[in-house]
Amino acid sequence: MIGQIRGIILQKQPPQLLVDVNGVGYELDAPMSTFYRLPDIGQEVTLVTHFVVREDAHHLYGFFAEEERLLFRTLLKVNGVGPRLALTILSSITPDEFVQCVVNNDTASLVRLPGVGKKTAERLIIEMRDKLAVWQQQSPVELNLLTPVIGRGGRNQAMQDAISALVSLGYKPQEASRAVSKVDDGALSSEDIIRKALREMV
Known about the structure:
By secondary structure, this protein is an alpha+beta fold. Helix content is 46%, strand content 19%. A 5-stranded antiparallel β-sheet has the order 3-2-1-4-5.
């Protein structure tokens, strides 16, 4: 079991990242809530992880905060929820907001998340309500990051990266493209475009 890694970020392509740990490159999938808080490429980062072993593949998931991993693992225990959907949920809503939806039986908010239909929303509430009733509420994490100015040469790339990430999270390409075009102001990083687009679509 790999529970934590610390290394240098080599690549960031939401929802995937590559971290160099003493010469070994670890490929991880991470929710957007983690991407918003990652340092720049070339900087050191410490992530808590969850390792999934299947017959045909091994997958490593990384999280900036323990509460993200805890919610991810709790989601995996729900019937019909796999790692991809759990990652999408964490990318679309904060842990505290999700907990409030479950505790308050707010299926209307849950079905607006990509990949979550009415039946899945009901299962999330039924199977997670008792487990999350004692969730320790934390102060909301401040996600106001300093946004680097992107030159014209990187503008299209930032938008394409954002669209690709949204499609990976379960949104339709046309839907992702519309949302990105709507929120992009010409100076946002791909991570900030994704964050604003998610808020637009939820």
